[in-house]
Amino acid sequence: MEPGPAMLRIGELSRRLGVSTDVLRAWERRYGLLRPERSTGGYRLYSEADEHRVRAMQAHLAHGLSAAEAARAALAEPATGPPPGPVAPVMDGMLGAALERFDEPSAQTILDRLLAGFTAETVLRDVLLPYLHELGERWERGEVTVAQEHFASNVLRARIAALGRGWGQGRGPRALLACAPGELHDLPLLAFGVILYRNGWRVSYLGAATPMPDLLRTATAEPPQLIALSAVDPARFAGLEADLLRLADVAPLVLGGRGADAATARAAGARRLTGDPVTEAERLSRAGDLT
User: Fold this and answer.
1) Burial (CB count within 10 angstroms: exposed 0-12, middle 13-18, buried 19+), residue 256
2) What phi and psi values does residue 135 have, to the nearest 5 degrees?
3) Average pLDDT, whole number, for the chain?
4) Which residues are 174's β-sheet partners?
5) Residue 90 pLDDT > 60, yes or no?
6) What is the C-alpha to C-alpha distance for residues 284 and 252, in angstroms, rounded to an integer?
7) What gap in Å lies between CA 18 and CA 121, rounded to an integer?
8) Chain-centre distance of CA 144, in angstroms?
9) Residue 253 forms beta bridges with which residues?
């Protein structure tokens, strides 16, 4: 099948591929990977052939080629027929295998390739968070050891945290993030904070198992524009109704994680986040989406 005409703006191409517009422009400039046409209004439009070449480059990157080598290989292939499928699931399997054999150098190399070829949003939403969720379920079934689960979680925690380096700086609205008392699973909340930061927020991150008195003191001392409280276990929210109401009086309050049910959110005057952390952070970042 021949590729269709050039009809895509770069933002739509970026959304389809999970690659930032900055990376797409760099690949176009450095390697000639994209060949846009000009619309009558002067807009640069991209075709299915451009999408095909980017996906091919991602596939070559996933197999260990450098960016320049991957671009040359993609350009040498005919940009016809169905484009290669998304690479993220393939690299997800490679990443899990490396982590579960305690091979940090290989895991870091795979993470480097993922973050070079995809946006942080795509890597978090489509690879890291699903893998961590699956890892927890496999641990509960006895298919991985505690050591494997801890090793993988700690390696990924460091990489996710690195994406939020400097997230308390700037002039944007401030979000105060914490896990409910006793809740130790904070990686989804960490990813939520990273995406808020990438959308212009300043983040104050209190992390796992935050005592409510400390959270209330922190919130009232310098009220943020958003408070987010997370829990995987519904029992973590039990008995917190009065404290949650006090938090909601300080700033808009959102409750996330599998432990946040609709009844608890209603009783607290809070908004319940039902989607994945990345999508919810993007939604909250839209103008007027805190109601």
Assistant:
1) buried
2) -60, -45
3) 87
4) 202
5) no
6) 11
7) 8
8) 24
9) 227
Residue 65's Cβ-count burial label (10 Å; 0-12, 13-18, 19+) is middle
The total of other beta-carbon atoms located within 10 Å of residue 147's CB is: 10
Q: From residue 114, how far is each of 66, 119, 232, 261 by CA, in Å?
A: 13, 8, 27, 34
Across residues 50-64, what is the average pLDDT?
82
Identify the DSSP state of 235.
Answer: G
Token couple for 134:
């699956």
> How far apart, in whole angstroms, are the C-alpha atoms of residue 72 and residue 60?
10
Spatial distance between the Cα atoms of 97 and 106, rounded to a whole number of angstroms: 10
The string of pLDDT tens digits covering residues 196-212 is 999 999 999 999 999 99
Q: What pTM was computed for the model?
A: 0.77
Q: What Rg, from alpha-carbon coordinates, does the chain have?
A: 21
- Read off the amino acid at residue 203: V
* Identity of the residue numbered 18: G
In this structure, what is the dihedral angle of CA atoms 76, 81, 87, 93, given to the nearest 10 degrees? -110
More reliable by pLDDT, 278 or 115: 278
Strand 44-45 and strand 37-38: the pairing is antiparallel
- Amino acid identity of residue 39, one-letter, is S
Angular region, 47: left φ>0, alpha ψ -120 to 50, beta rest: beta
Residue found by looking up tokens 């989406």 in the block: 289
8 A C-beta contact, residue 203 and residue 177: yes
Which of the 8 DSSP states describes residue 182?
A: T
